[in-house]
Amino acid sequence: MAEQVGGLTYTILDADKMTAAEIYGDVLTQIGGQRPEIVALSADLAKSTKIGKFGEKYPDRFFNVGIAEQNMFGVAAGLALAGFVPFVSTFAVFVSMRAGEQVRTDICYQKLNCKIIATHSGISFGQAGTTHHCTEDLAIIRSFANMTVIAPADGFETAKAVQASVDWKGPVYIRIGRGFEPRVYTDDKFDFTIGKAREMRPGTDVTVIACGTPLVGAVDAADFLKKNDGLSVRVINMHTIKPIDREAIEKAVMDTRRIITFEDHNVIGGLGSAVAEVIADLGKGCAFKRVGIPDEFSPVGYPDDLYHHYKLDSEGIIDTVREVMGKEFEEDEDWQDEF
Amino acid sequence: MALSDKELKTLTEKAHQIRKDIIQTLIWSGGGHAGGALSQADILVALYYKYLNIDPKRPDWPDRDRVILSKGHGGVGYAPILADKGYFDKELLKDFNHTGSPFGMHLDGLKVKGVDASTGSLGHGLPISVGLALGARLKKKDWLTYCIMGDGEQNEGTIWEAAMAACHYKLSNLIGIIDNNKYCIDGACEDIMCIEPLGKKWEAFGWKVIDSDGHDYTKLCPAIEEAITYKDGPCVIIAHTIKGKGVDFMEDVAAWHYGGLDADKTKKAIESIDKMYANK
Ligand SMILES: Cc1ncc(C[n+]2csc(CCOP(=O)(O)OP(=O)(O)O)c2C)c(N)n1
Fold first, then answer.
1. Which residue ranges in chain A fall short of pLDDT 50?
2. Which chain A residues have a beta carbon less than 8 Å from that of B149?
C-alpha cells in the first residue's frame, strides 16, 4: 500500500500488528527520510506517543526535552523559525492546556510550520482519570487563529493526516486517541484532503456527523438502522474541524434536515458547536442534537465502558438516531425559499 | 523524636506489608505505575506512621498536616497506605482502575478520603503546596505541608517558579521530598533531561537541602526531623531511592515505570519482597 501526496511516499506494512499511534510513528519516520527539514520532539512521552520511532531512526533530529511541555513548544517554535518543520507529540491535555499559550502565541501567532500530534485525547485514557483526559482541546485549539485542526478516525487516517500536514502551510493540530481504537478503514486506499469531509454512508433521512473514535460506531449504526429500521442515515466523517467543510453541513441541512453530532469531547466548543455555528449561519431550520461529554469530568473507567456510558458507541448512536427520528419535526412548505 | 529500635521495627514491618499491598493493588487494577509506587513507599510510610499529625477519622480536620503527592501517578502506591490508616475500607481497592471506581491511576481528592489535592499532571503539587503553606501562616496555624515530587518531575518549570516563591515567602512550614529514583518514563533522567546538580539548584533557589537515603529509616527519619525543626525557610529532602525497590526484576528497569503482573510475576514479586525483609 503506497501513497503519494506532494511527492511523499510511505508504505504501511503489517498494519494489523500496529496500533493507530504506531502507524503514525512509522509513517512519520518514513516521511522523515524524504524530508531532512523534519525534526521531532517529545516530553518524556516518546514511547507512549510513538514519536520515539522517529527518534530511533534519526536521533540527531529528535529532541526529548524531558517533562517540560511549555519549554518543548517554545523550542519547537525556535526550530521552526530556524527553518525546520517540527512534529511535536505529547498527550492532548498537555498540548492544549499546559502549553496552550506557547502553542497560541509562539506557534500560531507567528504562523509557524509546526505540526502537533496530540495523543490520548478525549476520554481514551479512561483509567488515568481527569488529569489525563482531554475533553476541551477542540474548543481551545480551534479558537487559535491560523491553526488547522484535524481529528482522524483511525490509524490509516492519522497516517494520511500526518502526510498531508507536511506540505500544509502553518500550524496543524492532529488529535488522536490512545492508539488502541478500532479501525474504520480497512486500508489506506481512500482520499484524504484537509478541510474536505468524507461521506462514509449516503443517506436522506438524517445525517450523523462524527469525528475521531465515535466514527466507527456511527458507520455501524447506519448499517444497522438501514437493515432493521429501514432508515437512510448519512454518515459524515468530519475529520477536519477547522477549516470545517461548510458545504457538507449545508448540504446535510438541505437534504436531511436532521443532524446529530458525535464526538469524544465536551459538547461545549467541539465538533457539535462547530457544526451548530454553520447551521446557525445558514439560517435554515434543522433538527439538531449534539452528543459528547455533557459538560462534566468523566468518571474513571475502561474506555469502551465510558464510550458506552456517553452513548458514543454504535448502540448509543442507534438510540439517539431513533430518538431524533421519533420526534415531530415540522416540515415547512416554503422552507426552501426562506431567508 | 529520635527513631527508637522499636519504631524502626514497626516502620520496617509496615513497609514490608505496604509493598505487598501495592503488589496486590497492582493486580486488582490490572496494571499501574509500579516503579514509582515502590520507590516512594518508605518515604510515605515514614510520614504516615511516625511524623504526620493527622486523624483518619476526621479527614477534613482543618489543623491536620497536608500531604501533596505531586507525582500523582504514585496513586497506586498511596491508596494502600490511606486504606491501612483507616481512611477507607481496603476492600474498595479491589475496584482500583475499574469502571465507576473512585480510584483511578491518579487519585481524585473529591472521591478518595485522605487525599489533600487531586494530582497527576506533573509540576502542580509544589505550587499548590506553597498556597497551603501560605494559608497556614495566614490562619496562624502550625500544621505542615509535605510535597512529594519525582525527579523527572524536576524538569517542569512550575517546580522552580514555586521554589522561588517558597523562598521569597520564607515558608519554613513547607517540606519538599524528592523521590530521587533516577528514572522518568523514557529512560534515565540523566539521559533524557539531566537535573543535576540537583542539590545545588535547590540551594541556589534559597532552600535548605538535606541529602538522604530514601529507603533506610535510620537516615530518612533524621532527615525528616531536621526538615521539621528547620525554621529559617523551606527545606527539601533529596531522598535517594531505587525505582521498583523491593522487586528485583523491577529495580532500575525503566520499562517498569508502568506495568502489569501475571500470576508468575506476582509470585516472584512477593518472593523478592519477602526476601528483602528477611534480611532485615
Ligand atoms: C505534565 C505532565 N507531563 C507528562 C506526564 C506523563 N508522565 C507520567 S509519570 C511521568 C514520569 C515521571 O517521572 P518521575 O517524576 O521521575 O516519577 P517516578 O520515576 O517517581 O515515577 C510522565 C512523563 C504527566 N503525568 N504530567
1. 1-3, 339
2. none
Pocket perturbation via mutation, ligand 1, pick of B78, B185, B253 by most ligand atoms within 8 A of CB = B185
Tell me the three cell numbers of residue B269: 514479586
Q: Does residue A333 form part of some domain?
A: no
**Whether residue B106 has its Cβ less than 6 Å from ligand 1:** no
Distance (Å) from CA B122 to ligand 1 centroid: 6
User: How far is A217 from B176, CA to CA, in rounded Å?
Assistant: 48
The pLDDT tens digits along chain B (280 residues) read: 689 999 999 999 999 999 999 999 999 999 999 999 999 999 999 999 999 999 999 999 999 999 999 999 999 999 999 999 999 999 999 999 999 999 999 999 999 999 999 999 999 999 999 999 999 999 999 999 999 999 999 999 999 999 999 999 999 999 999 999 999 999 999 999 999 999 999 999 999 999 999 999 999 999 999 999 999 999 999 999 999 999 999 999 999 999 999 999 999 999 999 999 997 7
Closest ligand 1 atom to Cα of B123: 1
A305 at B interface, C-beta within 8 A = yes
Q: Report CB contact under 8 Å: A128, B105.
A: yes
Cα A339 to ligand 1 centroid, rounded to whole Å: 55
Pick from B33, B122, B128, B179 the residue to mutate for testing the A interface (most A CBs within 10 Å).
Answer: B122
Rounded-to-integer distance, Cα A169 and Cα B216, Å: 57
In this prediction, residue A1 carries a pLDDT of 44
Give A123 to chain B, closest Cα distance, Å: 12
Cβ within 8 Å, pair B99-A301: yes
Does residue A186 lie within any of the structural domains?
no
Residues A205 and A324 in one domain: yes
Instruction: Name the pTM for this structure.
Output: 0.96
A92 and A151 co-located in one domain: yes
Residues of A with CB below 8 A from B259's CB? Answer: none
Structural domains of chain A, count: 2
The rounded Å distance from CA B180 to ligand 1 centre is 13
Query: Is A180 within a domain?
Result: no
| Domain presence at residue A263 | yes
Domain match, A140 and A236 both: no
Contact: B184, A66; criterion CB under 8 Å: yes
Q: Which residue has the cell 535510620?
A: B218
Domains plus CATH for chain B?
A: 5-278 (3.40.50.970)
B119 lines ligand 1 (CB under 6 A): no
- Of residues A206, A288, A198, the one with CA closest to residue A236: A198
Kindly report, residue by residue over B120-134, the tens digit of the pLDDT.
999 999 999 999 999
> What residue of B is the nearest CA neighbor of A47?
B186
| CATH number (domain holding residue A57) | 3.40.50.970
Structural domain for A54, as ranges: 2-175
